[in-house]
Amino acid sequence: MATGPIHQFNLYKLIPLDFNGVDLSFTNSSLFMAIIVFGVSGFLVWSTSGRGLVPSRMQSTAELLYEFAAGMLRTSAGPEAMRFFPFVFTLFMFILIANLLGMFPYFLTVTSHLVITATLALLVFFIVIIYGLMHNGLRFFKLFVPSGIPMAVMPLIVIIEIISFFTRPVSHSVRLFANMLAGHITLKVFAGFVISLGTLGAVGVAGAILPLAMTIALTALEFLVAFLQAYVFAILTCIYLNDALHPGH
Amino acid sequence: MAGDSRKTGTEPDNPERVGPSEAELAARLRALDQRLDSKANEKRVESAARGKPGSSGLAIALSVSGAFISAILVGAAMGWGIDRFFGVTPWGMIVFTLLGFAAGIVNVLRMTGHMSGPGGGSKSGG
Question: How many H-runs (helices) and E-runs (strands) does chain A carry?
Fold first, then answer.
């Protein structure tokens, strides 16, 4: 095999750009993110441009996506959370399409880079803090003070709650990143077995059927994971936003 | 009919006066059903976020262990920062790493639904 299973995550510069020592090159990752953003916006604008009372096939797909994200936000953070709908919907669509686009052979999965997922998770984290402080003022800190705790252990509990709060962006970003990375590596490793067994003559070719079947099964599983992880990222965002809207629940 | 009920003094014979009518009761029942449905929805959404249904044991193991380990790392990092800032070198990191372990346990208990969220309310998000 010419390339290892990690090779698919390589970044390379398509258009080198350098601003006073700051590397702002347009990489293949940037290219895929641009494709995702333009693809999603283009699809949604084009599919809803007809505005038919009886929706066309594409319009009905767009409406389904909207209803799905809106229902998710409403049930987990309440109706007043709908002001965050554009944010949550953008996040959901971006991650969903990034994961699904990564399923094409030779395509880069942008969500398998920790930089991307950590940026998105930190964005959610800071929106929760800033909006929570703006909306609730000091009542936001009730998030760290559980009710019904004796005063003696209160400082300890508050510190533990604060540490627990700060782990949110870590697990939020690592969950998406690790799932995409591990899935794609596993897929590539099993696909590599097919090639290396196939070079071993007739017995090898017969044996290669096993990893081939595994690769097919894993591909199906990866499609499920691609959708599920986008959903989990979005629903966790909704739950965190719920804390910003109603602290001390 | 009306005369009868006045004579005996019992109201149940008069359909207009028997508390809420059939239609009202039906409407109430529907409202209750809707409320129960939305509650059930909330529950489903929350458990979905914890990765229970529709995900494999591996996914649960990954996310639970991730929550535990990240809490320790965050605790250690905070302790290191406090050491740097206040110059109490070994103590901040020692204490905060241990607190990080505690926070990790809290995270895991919350994830598996053995403990409610902060505030002790019925909602156990987080």
Answer: 7, 4
Mean pLDDT in residue range A239-245 = 88
ipTM tops the 0.85 cut: no
Helix, strand, coil % (nearest 5) of chain B? Answer: 70, 0, 30
Question: Is B60 at the interface with chain A, CB within 8 A?
Answer: no
pTM of the model: 0.77
Q: Where are the beta strands (DSSP E) in chain A?
A: 13-15, 18-19, 22-23, 26-27
Tell if the CB–CB gap between B74 and A171 is shorter than 8 Å: no
Shortest Cα–Cα distance, B86 to chain A (Å): 17
- Per-residue pLDDT tens digits for A157-193: 888 989 989 998 998 898 899 889 989 999 999 988 8
Q: Do A143 and B118 touch (CB under 8 A)?
A: yes
Does pLDDT of A2 surpass 70? no
Residue whose pair of structure tokens reads 């998105």 in the numeric block: A120
Domain range summary for chain A, segments of one domain joined by +? 11-245
- Least Cα separation, residue A249 to chain B (angstroms): 5
How many CB atoms are closer than 10 A to CB B16? 7
Rounded Cα distance between A71 and A65, Å, is 10
CB contact under 8 A, B117 and A249: yes
Residue of A139, A142, A153, A160 to mutate, interface with B, max B Cβ within 10 Å: A160
Neighbours of A239 (CB within 10 A): 21
How much of chain A exceeds pLDDT 70, in percent? 98
Residue found under tokens 């019904």: A148
Size of interface A-B (CB pairs under 8 A): 103
Name which of A143, A145, A159 is nearest B99 (Cβ-Cβ). A159
